[in-house]
Amino acid sequence: MTEKDAWVMNGYLGIIVIAILIGVSVFNFFHLQIFVGIIFAVIGIILATGLTLIQPNQAVVVLFFGNYVGSLRKEGLVITVPFSLRKKISLRVRNFHSRRLKVNDVNGNPIEIAAVIVFRVVDSAKAVFDVDQYEEFVEIQSETALRAVATKYPYDSFDDTELTLRGNSEEISNELKTEVHERLFVAGVEIMEARLTHLAYSTEIAQAMLQRQQASAIVAARQQIVEGAVSMVQDAIEQLERDGVVKLNEDTRVTMINNLLVAIVADNGAQPIINTGTIKEE
Fold first, then answer.
1. ∠ CA 242-248-254 to the nearest 5 degrees?
2. pLDDT by residue, tens only, the chain of 282 residues
3. Residue 2, in any domain of the structure
């Protein structure tokens, strides 16, 4: 089902026509032309049944004896198909805030997640005829899409090799928007934005995962410190030998490397005692 335009007539012009028909009918009644008066009165009443008031950002779906004859989008007072059934659909931008869903991330950790979906109806025919209660359809499919996205990624990670729910919110939001749009296209709904509003570990594992995060953060920090220390020591030794400041044999080079690493990597401010008098040139 695709939206199409229904027959429409300017409402104010239609009111003038209806008034003229009623006036002619009354005139004929006074002149005892009852049959003619009845005809004009019936025509005026038939046109009056098509009067419809449309607000801004609103569409009206027109049904005539069960058949879809089109939709109206022109705001104001109009006249459409007489004796038709008309259903109003809001075209305004709306928000849907999902419940806090409990799902498992890709690593099996239970998490709580919620999102807000910004949407609007762009095809009134699809919204009315292709789904039953499109607003409820939006809610169910949005939460289904949120579950699907949440189970594809880990909650958090301390390396940059993979996307995470917490660390890549922009990418996750874009994927959620795409996922929801694909599910709601059948309902004639456009997704304008999708954003996570809540993300946390479930209460039963929150404390344990916090300790795990802290431990992982310490390990990651230590690894980075060691890598930086090795690089700094290597540069220092190479620069000393390149500039001819000192020439080191294998034993003294090992000793200096050990002392420099201890000074750089130590938790507290290290105060190494370096015996430079024992350093011999090769």
1. 115
2. 888 989 988 888 888 888 888 888 888 878 767 888 888 888 888 888 889 999 999 999 999 988 999 999 988 999 999 999 999 999 999 999 999 999 998 888 889 999 999 999 999 999 999 998 899 999 999 999 999 999 999 888 766 677 888 888 899 999 999 999 999 999 999 999 999 999 988 877 666 666 666 777 777 777 777 777 777 777 777 777 777 666 666 666 677 777 676 666 666 555 555 555 554 444
3. no
Q: Are residues 197 and 218 in the same domain?
A: no
Residue-wise burial string across 157-191, b where 16 or more C-beta atoms lie within 10 A, e elsewhere:
beeeeeebbebbeeebbebbbebbbebbeebbbeb
SS3 91: coil
Q: Whose CA is closest to 116, among 169, 185, 156, 168?
A: 169
**At what angle are helices 250-265 and 203-242 packed, to 10 degrees?**
140
Is the full-model pTM beyond 0.85? no
Number of domains in the chain: 3
Distance CA 82, CA 51 (A): 8
- Of 89, 114, 149, which residue is a domain's last? 89
80 lies in which domain range? Answer: 9-89
Assess whether 273 and 182 both reside in one domain: no
Give the domain-ending residue among 177, 201, 225: 201
CB 84 within 8 Å of CB 63: yes
Tokens of residue 60, six digits: 């009206």
H-type alpha helices, 94-202: 124-125, 134-150, 169-184
Does 1 fall in a domain? no
Whether residue 3 is contained in a domain is answered as: no
Same domain, 82 and 25: yes
